[in-house]
Amino acid sequence: QKEVEQDPGPLSVPEGAIVSLNCTYSNSAFQYFMWYRQYSRKGPELLMYTYSSGNKEDGRFTAQVDKSSKYISLFIRDSQPSDSATYLCATNTNAGKSTFGDGTTLTVKP
Amino acid sequence: EPEVTQTPSHQVTQMGQEVILRCVPISNHLYFYWYRQILGQKVEFLVSFYNNEISEKSEIFDDQFSVERPDGSNFTLKIRSTKLEDSAMYFCASSEKGVSETQYFGPGTRLLVL
After folding, report:
1. Is A109 touching B (CB cutoff 8 A)?
2. Partners of A34 in the beta sheet?
3. Between residues A49 and A81, which one has the greater pLDDT?
4. Bridge partners of B110?
5. pLDDT of residue A28
6. How far is CA A18 from CA A11, A38, A72, B19, B77, in A?
7. C-alpha closest to that of B111 among B5, B22, B12, B41
8. b or e along B30-68 (b: 16 or more beta carbons within 10 Å of the residue's beta carbon)?
9. Nearby residues of B34 by Cβ (< 8 Å), 6 or more positions away
10. Closest Cα to residue B20, out of B75, B77, B71, B61?
């Protein structure tokens, strides 16, 4: 079983749609949860970082963590063509080793 | 805005050769990391580094790999004898206060082993 499983996609939505990206994890030692955006042939860019269950909002982005079910989500409201990228969920232990999901490729069509 | 930089952006080498990938972390950051991403696959942790020591390493980080902070600004990844399967994008990252802190990634070095 993979430590972090991410909904594979690809995902294609019209501009303005609400996007839901999801991951599950198996290791209870994971305490920190991140969402990165990665454009083709570029490094991951941190979007959201959280360490507690609940919601964290930043502009059009909302990260949701449910530690009891080991489930993490990223919601994008009013999606834009510029949001088209691969989205990576990742988790950290206290030792700093980040474990990434496989990524979900999102295309937002104008 | 401060950013992590990496050089070179691309490196082509022959199998068996040694390569050194260089990174300049964000200046006030104390924790440094290397990751790799084989084309079409997920980002994989290689090693974390703090206070001139390896904090944690993955099973990928075997004896052919080493890391060093040769001076106050650079952080390097050396691959001693490259193999075809080392071809990947290598990302450096840094964080400020601790391993649980947000890690900022560099743009990567694309390594191709022929």
Report:
1. no
2. A49, A90
3. A81
4. B10, B89
5. 83
6. 12, 19, 16, 44, 41
7. B12
8. bbbbbbbbeeeebbbbbbbbbeeeebbbbeebeeebebe
9. B21, B23, B46, B47, B67, B77, B90, B91, B92, B93
10. B77
Q: How close does chain B come to A50, measured CA to CA in Å? A: 9
Of B31, B44, B107, the CB nearest to A42: B107
Does the structure show a pLDDT above 90 at B98?
no
| Spatial distance between the Cα atoms of A27 and A29, rounded to a whole number of angstroms | 5
With beta carbons less than 8 A apart as the criterion, state whether A25 and A91 touch: yes
Average pLDDT of the segment spanning B14-18: 97
Interval B53-66 mean pLDDT? 93
Encoded amino acid at A76, one letter: I
Beta-carbon contacts below 8 Å between A and B? 65
- Give the one of A43, A96, A103 whose C-beta lies nearest to B42's C-beta: A103
For residue B10, which amino acid is it? H
